[in-house]
Amino acid sequence: FKAAVLIQQWYRRHVARLEMRRRCTWRIFQSIEYACEQDQIQLHSFFSYLMDQFTPSSSKERDFISRMFISGESYKEAELEKYCDYESIEVPDSYTGPRLSFPLLPDHATALLEAFQQKQQLHARYVLNLLHETRKHLKQLPNISHVSTCYSEEVTVCGDLHGQLDDLFLIFYKNGLPSPSKSYVFNGDFVDRGKQSLEILVILFTFLLIYPKEVHLNRGNHEDHMVNLRYGFTKEVMQKYKVHGKKILKMFQNVFCWLPLATLIDQKVLIIHGGISDTTDLGMLEKIQRDKFVSVLRLKKRRESSRKPEIQTINGERESGTDAAGNETAPRLSLQPQSAQAPRTANRLEFSRWLRQTVQEQIDTCRRLVDISESEPEELTYSSMVSLKDVDESCWTRQEEWKQILDVLWSDPMPQEGCRENKVRGGGCYFGPDVTEKFLEKHSLQFLIRSHECKQEGYEFCHNRKVLTIFSASNYYEIGSNRGAYVKLGPDLIPHFVQYQANKTAHMLTMTQRQGFPVALISRVEESAFRALREKLFAHTSALISAFKAYDVDNTGRITLSNWATAVESVLRLGLPWRMLRPQLVRSTEDGMLQYKSWLDDLAMEQRSQEHIQSSLLEVIYRNRSNLETIFRIIDRDHSGLISFEEFQQTWKLFSSHMNIELTDDGINDLVRSIDFNKDGNIDFNEFLEAFRLVKQCP
């Protein structure tokens, strides 16, 4: 009996330790993911701020600026049809892939499934034709789709797929293909991160056209061309369709903005991608002209007609808040030192020093200007954070509409009461159980189904089982990190869940998983998480050294582990339990003290073993590569993979006009020629990185 008790105690401690490791690993993955989303939104806010303040000096500049962020709105109906004309594209006789003819039939969907399983690619003509037909269908749909279980035995709801085609295949294998007796609701985030986003969209759009009453698609926060620039869908399309990729992307942008915002089952269960806020109103959602919001990340705050020329002297004689007549203007950027000027020569070293200094200062300044979350008191309601004063009625309506869509696509539930800004993601809000209860009561609903968050079991209830999160992309962070799931609802609206893991390696471990989270699997996932965390630490080496030195008053090179944890959190701001994670990150200590320089050297050595690049260069690459790649794709408006001289020149005017930099057209021409190292008349991504000189230069 004593032996049995001893074994039981040992087993419980073992399971408890595994659970603790599992939760820490999960927090690392989510914290890094959400920090990346914050970077994306802040970077976009930085460009948006410049866009709102920029006054084009010519129609050419105005056209270029309008294309940077609102390219999806710049095409009228007839222009879009003409630009993306699929009939002019010929299909060669050598093409052996699937062929589509409209109206589509179930055999077309079957052929597509078989072709994609065999890694075949659908010809660009058929992709564009499919997008045209899908767009026509979506334009006829309301903002909120209505589904009834009276016409089918059950409705299947799927969450995020994120380009993981194997998960979609597994769902269809387990649950069956869409049909008149089997309805599906796919709740957004079909694209990005995975490598087969385009195939998923083609399949879903095909079934949507074949069974328009049984297949329903909601828009997610990743059905946004600005988000696609960072997370992979833009790159995927251009790699798969090098000739017609620009046309296909243009059509996808337009189709995305026509996707419905929500689905309502039997008037009792609301399906939305993200969540709600204390101001979410289904009546307003139903009336919004949803196609106006090509990108939810950007709201054009001022009409072009009301924009007045703004003047600011370079020597800072005029205050940033007033114009020449003393009228109030939008906040302007200030440069320290204000007399900074671009080098007049094409000297690459000199240019890189100047560019790195000025751009970094302005990015830091703009982040402070656009990231208002730190200055907002915690007790404010989310609705009070959107200031509507000093805005006329039409702008007020558009801002309210934008806020409704932003909340529905980006929000997350929280266990606390109330509604507050989502500081973790940088967009949307956090809503508590009281907000959920009021919303359900107001609209006579039973519960909400949402996605947007990866869950370890593929689904999770919260808010007294009134909010259900469903996530269908298995192995999202790493093989074995999470299961995917979908939920089936019958006439009784009782949810029935089906879980799965699509990867073969993870599938081999399912028998062990039934008895608990396997040690081998959690070790693999845990190592992946800590590897990503060590990369994050290495990317902030310089900032960490400064933070450590603040605690090392006597300059001994040693700090306490408690100070180490505090300093690391102050730099990375990931909200992680650093003291608990310390044994995995700090190998050895002396008397509870850490030799922080040696620890940072070990981090650098580990990263250099993976990338044969000097550490100073590698540090900044790890920290800035995603942002720089996003900036590159923003400037590269035709998605050619190259920045033309004109694109660079016009973009640099956007920067220089609000950085108090005296730079003539000849000076810009000298700069762009100095960046074009191979002298081919364009700037590729490697040249773009080299121009920013991601390496510390000695003064």
From TrEMBL:
Q: Which GO terms describe its molecular function?
A: calcium ion binding; Hsp90 protein binding; iron ion binding; manganese ion binding; protein serine/threonine phosphatase activity
Instruction: Tell me which Gene Ontology terms the entry assigns under biological process.
Output: detection of stimulus involved in sensory perception; negative regulation of MAPK cascade
EC number in record = 3.1.3.16
Disordered: region residues? 307-344
Q: Which cofactor does it need?
A: Mn(2+)
Top EC class for this record: hydrolase
**Which intervals carry biased composition (Polar residues)?**
335-344
Q: Which Gene3D superfamilies match?
A: 3.60.21.10, EF-hand (1.10.238.10)
Q: Which keywords describe this protein according to UniProt?
A: Calcium, Hydrolase, Manganese, Metal-binding, Repeat
Q: What is this protein called?
A: Serine/threonine-protein phosphatase
